[in-house]
Amino acid sequence: MAELKIRRINAELQKIAKEELNELPERVGADIEALRTWIKQQPHLRARDDDQFLLSFLRGCKFSLEKVKSKIDKFYTLRTKYPDFFGAFDADEATIRAIINAGIILLLPKPLHEHGARIILIRQGALPADKYTIEHFIRAVSHLQEIIIREDDHAIISGVISIIDIEDCTTAHVMQMTPSVMKKMSVHAEEAVPLRPQQQHFIHIPSGFETVFNAMRPLMTKKQQNRISVHAEKLDRFYEHVPLSYLPVEYGGDNGTLAEIINYTNKQLDEYREYFKENKNYGTDESLRSGKPVDYDSLFGVEGSFRKLELSNQHKTSLPRSYWNFFNIILAIALRAMSEKSLDIRPLTPALQQKALNELNEKPEHLAADITALRAWLRKQPHLKTRQSDQFILNFLRGCKFSLEKAKRKLDQYYTLRSMLPELNQHNFVDDQRLRAIIRLGVTLYLPLPLMEDGPCIMLMRPGKCNPHEFNLTDLLRVSFLLQDISLISNDNMIIAGFMQIGDFEDFSMAHLLQLSPSLIKRFGFYVEEGMPMRIKNSHFFNTGVIFEKMFATVKLVLPAKMVERVQVHSTFESLCEAVPIKYLPKDYGGENGCIEEVAARTEQLILDYREYLLDEQNYGVDEKLRIDDVSNVGTSFGIDGSFRKLNVD
């Protein structure tokens, strides 16, 4: 057998190769030859078969010949199928050099602890996302990976430590990390590249993401838990894994400067110029493959989605066992958390986030695009002058289960219907003393605790506590109007899980009943049902009597049918508590959900806190003269002039 053309490695690396990779020096030649023979027998496969290249794959597969065969096949299969991602053909490609020169991916010169893993620093936020795509980035990585395969014994034998610095990542970066892209990355890294991941550290993540990550840890395998770590601003725990001295000078270490590393990488690319050109001679031809051709739908899932990923609300939750699949999910969530800084939206609790995913069709990776699309549409509507903050638009998307068409219609109806409620759409009422008096009486309040962590918020109404000789129905509805405006921008439980009404009709009298305006009730009910992006889950009324029954008989005729169907009238307090556990009621009713006096005081302060926001609302609305399409006909729902002239009441 001819002498092997492979690099000699030092005794320490040889020891690691023998103990961890099952390498037997006396069998290396035979293993290489067996692999070379197999490659020549594959009519569809044109692969490099020099000693060093094949040895790297053998080491990366711990000398399992069957695993090596599969990995080499996929290495060239994926490169042939997706050259824009995994092609390594041109060392002088301008985009690759630009990515290298920006210091986006850096192979640090010193391995960990002299004979340990190669350290790779990825600075995703340094990639100008408006100029370069994730395909450009992966293609640059593919060039460097092949250099590593050929000449980096530390990476091949001791593995790789990846440090992902997501500082300065933006929404634009997040939008490039689609499920299809992540799946391609996962399959390629897991099944095609002979590099073993030892540790992955996400640094400079938003502090809130640590909570999300820790909640996901029990769903990870032991190996995944040991490999993946996240670190916010404090990096002390990170330095226990990767001491500071192993980082670049710009990060406080002494493992080269960014400029030195970039220059060295450019020299490597120069040296491999001809090698990469030769790569065009290698690949696969599926028409010549023996047996079945590669089923890419099976390999990646339809359209590269995570169709086999099942997330369940139950205590048994299934996540991908593939390390790289999980790694990319963590990366996507981390990038999303970064994007939320630029999107200016509140992070959800894990429970609400899960509910948004399961029930509202929310896809975190699409948030920025959906918000941008809806904002772009709003700007093209001359008749609409609307709020356009990220949080405001997102709440309408959530309220419409992320149907853009429904969100457009809902936003239009929201402002159109408000213009048809001039009695209520008076935000200067925020400075009216009647507002404060009604709040202090505890007539309309949102209780502090929702029904369970991911449940609807609870609205308590006590209309009988309002003196009908001092206040009228319009005053009460104005209070509800203002509180709904505040909740729309601030209450995630209400937007995602809806709200529950609890009506206590104690002291409700004939004087209250005589104030009812069927026209106003109908318009307000229609506005809540069709214009607001939050859903009434159900309404529970108790302490009712004959007067309430007369009122309810009238109200049922004018409210939307869905609202009426959700109403449950309780003949006893015990019946109410069977539907709503007593702990979710105020202390005044024997519960644990605050006392009415304290909730009223907090509500009064909340209105003061949002005073400027509420006053600013008068600057938004519709101008029907400027509407491009047909004039909105929502007014017909009220009858002419909002009256009930078509309504026959017995």
Which helices and strands appear, and what pairs or packs with what?
Layout: H1 11-21, H2 25-40, E1 45-46, H3 51-60, H4 65-81, H5 83-86, H6 94-101, E2 105-107, E3 118-123, H7 134-151, H8 153-158, E4 160-165, H9 171-176, H10 179-191, E5 197-203, H11 207-216, H12 222-227, E6 228-230, H13 236-241, H14 258-271, H15 273-278, E7 283-284, H16 296-300, H17 323-343, H18 350-359, H19 367-379, E8 384-385, H20 390-399, H21 404-419, H22 433-440, E9 444-446, E10 457-461, H23 473-490, H24 492-497, E11 499-504, H25 510-513, H26 518-530, E12 536-542, H27 546-558, H28 561-565, E13 567-569, H29 573-579, H30 596-609, H31 611-616, E14 621-622
Parallel strand pairs: 3-4, 4-5, 5-6, 10-11, 11-12, 12-13
Antiparallel strand pairs: 1-7, 2-3, 8-14, 9-10
Structure in words:
With 650 residues, this protein is an alpha/beta fold. It has 31 helices and 14 strands. It folds into 3 domains: 11-83; 84-304, 3-Layer(aba) Sandwich (Phosphatidylinositol Transfer Protein Sec14p); 427-634, CRAL-TRIO lipid binding domain (Phosphatidylinositol Transfer Protein Sec14p), CATH 3.40.525. It is 49% helix and 9% strand. The strands form 4 sheets. Strands 2-3-4-5-6 form a 5-stranded mixed beta sheet. Helix 6 packs across helix 7 (134-151) and helix 19 (367-379) packs across helix 20 (390-399). The protein starts with 10 loop residues before the first helix and ends in a 28-residue tail after the last strand. Mean pLDDT is 85; it is low at 301-324 and 635-650.
